[in-house]
């Protein structure tokens, strides 16, 4: 169950990271409220996941999901460049996330 909570927390991190763009510096009410809610929910779920998972593993996976997800969504939503180098390094993040899961022992 902790891994499920952690993945959801990571996906919510993607939501709030992308949401930051839509808040326009927190000048738009609805995107700001939704982004704030995603931040709080992501942190709460991360905290719950760390009850069972090592903090280094949980935080690393959470950050990795957020970084890869925000990178992909930035390419899709904001036409950010999808260069071979960028895709290569994002794939390394995915390998690191899988590696942390496999070696966590839980």
Automatic annotation (TrEMBL):
The keyword Cell membrane applies. It is a multi-pass membrane protein. It is found in: Cell membrane. One of its GO terms (molecular function) is transmembrane transporter activity. Its main location: membrane. GO terms for biological process: xenobiotic detoxification by transmembrane export across the plasma membrane. The chain crosses the membrane at residues 33-50, 57-78, 84-103. Keywords: Cell membrane, Membrane, Transmembrane, Transmembrane helix, Transport. InterPro entries: EmrE-like (IPR037185), Small_drug/metabolite_transptr (IPR000390), Small_multidrug_res (IPR045324). The keyword Cell membrane applies. GO terms for cellular component: plasma membrane. It holds the Pfam family Multi_Drug_Res. Belongs to the drug/metabolite transporter (DMT) superfamily. Small multidrug resistance (SMR) (TC 2.A.7.1) family. Gdx/SugE subfamily. PANTHER family: GUANIDINIUM EXPORTER, SMR FAMILY PROTON-DEPENDENT DRUG EFFLUX TRANSPORTER SUGE. This is Guanidinium exporter.
């Amino acid at each position: 169950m902790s891994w499920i909570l952690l993945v959801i927390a990571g996906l919510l991190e993607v939501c709030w990271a992308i949401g930051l763009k839509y808040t326009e510096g927190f000048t738009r009410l609805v995107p700001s409220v939704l982004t704030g809610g995603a931040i709080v929910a992501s942190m709460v779920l991360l905290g719950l996941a760390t009850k069972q998972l090592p903090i280094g593993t949980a935080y690393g996976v959470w950050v990795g999901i957020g970084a890869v997800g925000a990178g992909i969504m930035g390419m899709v939503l904001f036409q950010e460049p999808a260069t071979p180098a960028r895709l290569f390094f994002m794939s390394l993040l995915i390998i690191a996330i899988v590696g942390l899961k496999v070696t966590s022992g839980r």
